[in-house]
Fold these 2 entries.
Entry 1:
Amino acid sequence: MGVAAVGAVAGCSGGSRDGDGRGKAPAPGAVERARAARDSLTLLGQYDAALAAHPQLSGRLTPLRTQVALHVSAFGGKPPAPAGSATPSAPSSRGASGQPSTAPPASRAPRSGAATASPTAPTAQSPSAALAALAAAERALADRRAAALLTVPGELARLMASVAAAGAAHVVLLTPGAHTA
């Protein structure tokens, strides 16, 4: 009987209870990957807020925002479309009379799960303050990702290192005096 009991106990360790995955622990790095996607979504929201408040920065910020959206995707998240971009599923901006509608396009309406600027990082009053706030957010996120490299599985560590390096490059490009020729 002792051998049968040991066999029964050994068969119950660590697997799924009923085959649907509810009893399994998340895959190594899954929690960190999801956190990285959320962090990038938050940063994306900060870029969107800065662009909305300071459209004159569009030439400088749009390429960086595009890269941050790619980072969201690389970590498995779904970035929202850039504000002001048309989406195939968005309704026409013309009303029934054929005249332009005064209603905001659906692509600009807040979507559930879409990132917004952090409540602790209000939109800067001046363009230079907006750039400084974005540089600080990029720097802090790059530093957190670099610190996490030794705690995540290899493939995720390589991805996080690459994205942290991109964030550090963004800091340079957002800093006054950066050459963006």
Entry 2:
Amino acid sequence: MFDFFNSVATGASEPSRSDYQAESSGIFVVSIGGSLIVDEQGPRVEAIRAFADAISSLHSSGKKIVVVVGGGKTARNYANAAASLGANNFEQDLLGIHVTRANAMLLANAIVESYNEVVSDVSRVSELLEAGKVPVFGGLMPFFTTDSVGALLAEKLNATFVNLTNVDGIYDSDPKTNPDARRFDEIGYNKLVSLIVAAGSRPGQNVVLDIACCMILRRSRIPAAVLDGDNIENFKAFVNGYSFTGTMIKETNGEDEAIAPVAAAEFGAPENSAPASQEHSVEEADIEGVAKDKKPINRGKKRKVRTYVGNLDKKSIHPDEIDF
């Protein structure tokens, strides 16, 4: 009770509570971009230590934390090298998975409460949490990114999904090249899917979240956030329910509407800027088939969905990476 008098006397005030209150089971699945763990100079030892300290602190306060670590630029470099040596996409992904697990081991070794090895069996996550451990995952299988692994774990655990990356949220265009790029404070599941679908899926792609991850979030209405991974205090504030800077992914008004056709303008490029050979349109695509939700969306109605697979650097949502 004396904390109240101390705060009045010193003029200090408690941080404001966030408008978002976690609707999960008190479990947080944290997907950490590989570039936050290893950069061009090598492992970011101080950053790894900061992540480990924050996770241990949250764990000590009663939060249940699961961590998934990506491959970042290192994985993309290996995938590109493998491709130049004749490896196909499947083989490139396998190589990337090994990189994610090496990154995951670095972080797991720094977290006192972590399990003693990188976990690769999703079915064990509940048992490890109940044992008071912090399970740390890398990649699991080709094509399935670490963000998708994180979303799948969040779905299994009825948890909140947190994506820690190298920007402070989801933008409507590349904030590094467009000073007028707008960050979404919150975004609905359908809007998120419509943003991501234009980027396609290929090894080492360079967008905020991959389509599989977004579809998992949407089908189970998983609460999620995209935050700047270099701002550890902001990450802790979000998990503890205080105000934070980032993008909240949640159900919004109009979520029952079908996915809107993707507007190229949302990706910082005019609609006709992609050469015909690089533009693939799915005429009269059945949105119900795309969504694959248990609850059909506008059954019987059709929409045109246009995806762009060329010049992704010019049409990327923002410079964050998708890790394997």
